C-alpha cells in the first residue's frame, strides 16, 4: 500500500469521528497529531473536502499552530523555552550548547532521527529557568551538566 493511501486510511476514521461536531477542525487535527505524531500534507485535502473548507483554510490552521508539525518528529522531541525569563537566566547559552551537542538547529530533526528541537515561548517554569520539555517531561534549571545529560539521553 503506498504511503499516501496509508496516510489517508489512518486519518479517515479520525475525520469521520469529528466531522459532524461543531468546530471539528481542531479536534480532527489533534486526533491526527495523536495518531501519527504530525499532520501530513496529504491529509490536508482530505480534511478540507470532508469539512467543505478550502485547502488554504486547513493549511492556515496547521501552519499557524506550532504544535501541528508537518513532518514526522524525531524519536525524542525537545522543546527549549526561549521566553524572556529563561533568556535572563542564561537561556541563550543553553540553546547554543544544545544545538552544538545535538547537531541540530531549532525547528529541525537530527539526520539520524533521534531528536527534534523546537523553540517554545514559556513552559511556566519562569522561576526555574532556563527550562525545557523532553518528551512531555519538564526540566528546570538547565546547566551544562543537565544539557549534557539531555544530549546523551536523546542520542542513546
UniProtKB/TrEMBL annotation:
<comment type="similarity">
    <text>Belongs to the complex I 24 kDa subunit family.</text>
</comment>
<keyword id="KW-0001">2Fe-2S</keyword>
<dbReference type="InterPro" id="IPR002023">
    <property type="entry name" value="NuoE-like"/>
</dbReference>
<dbReference type="InterPro" id="IPR041921">
    <property type="entry name" value="NuoE_N"/>
</dbReference>
<dbReference type="Pfam" id="PF01257">
    <property type="entry name" value="2Fe-2S_thioredx"/>
</dbReference>
<keyword id="KW-0408">Iron</keyword>
<protein>
    <submittedName>
        <fullName>Formate dehydrogenase subunit gamma</fullName>
    </submittedName>
</protein>
<dbReference type="InterPro" id="IPR028431">
    <property type="entry name" value="NADP_DH_HndA-like"/>
</dbReference>
<dbReference type="InterPro" id="IPR036249">
    <property type="entry name" value="Thioredoxin-like_sf"/>
</dbReference>
<keyword id="KW-0479">Metal-binding</keyword>
<keyword id="KW-0411">Iron-sulfur</keyword>
Amino acid at each position: 500500500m503506498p504511503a499516501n493511501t496509508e496516510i489517508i486510511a489512518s486519518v479517515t476514521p479520525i475525520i469521520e469521528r469529528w466531522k459532524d461536531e461543531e468546530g471539528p477542525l481542531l479536534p480532527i487535527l489533534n486526533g491526527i497529531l495523536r495518531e501519527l505524531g504530525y499532520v501530513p500534507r496529504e491529509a490536508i485535502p482530505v480534511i478540507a473536502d470532508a469539512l467543505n473548507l478550502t485547502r488554504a483554510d486547513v493549511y492556515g490552521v496547521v501552519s499557524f499552530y506550532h504544535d501541528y508539525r508537518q513532518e514526522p518528529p524525531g524519536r525524542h522531541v525537545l522543546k527549549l523555552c526561549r521566553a524572556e525569563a529563561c533568556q535572563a537566566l542564561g537561556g541563550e547559552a543553553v540553546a547554543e550548547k544544545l544545538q552544538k551537542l545535538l547537531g541540530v538547529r531549532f525547528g529541525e530533526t537530527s539526520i539520524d532521527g533521534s531528536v527534534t528541537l523546537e523553540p517554545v515561548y514559556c513552559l511556566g517554569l519562569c522561576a526555574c529557568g532556563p527550562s525545557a520539555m523532553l518528551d512531555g517531561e519538564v526540566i528546570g534549571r538547565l546547566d551544562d551538566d543537565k544539557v549534557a545529560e539531555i544530549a546523551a539521553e536523546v542520542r542513546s
